[in-house]
User: Fold this.
Amino acid sequence: MTTAGTHTFTWEDPSPVWLAAAHLSGLEIWRAVARGELPRPPIGASMDFGIDAVEEGRIVFRATAAPWMLNPLGSVHGGAIATLLDSAVGCAVHTTLPVGVAYTTLELKVNYVRAVPHDAGDLLAEGTVVHRGSRVATAEGRLTLADSGKLVAHASTTCLVVEPRG
Assistant:
């Protein structure tokens, strides 16, 4: 006998975040999202990310391993892991950007070092900026099991810093 489950989620209109970017820095935006004053992005709602820490050049997301994230072998799918890490490293870069400046990911590299079991519980994705120049930023990320601190994957990114057109 097989059992099935469902994964449903509700997200808020993300446009208040886009509009806030006209008068808030990236750090201010992420602090407002962490406080619930701005909606989290739909990807955060779909994967049920929480925010444990936000500071300039660093952000920590928390998510719980869930049955809908599993691959055919019964561990958390690499795509879910990559999504957590991509969010952490990109948002870490965002926390360094002033009002009106955006970014986009140019490259993401993920290294998987151990399987994440279906019952792993909470996962922490920490992103930290390594370099933030005027046109390019780089960041590193680590995904760990919250209860043991064991590393399960790490990542690096290169982002393009996009200044407003004048």
Remarks:
- The helical segments are 15-20, 26-35, 42-46, 78-94.
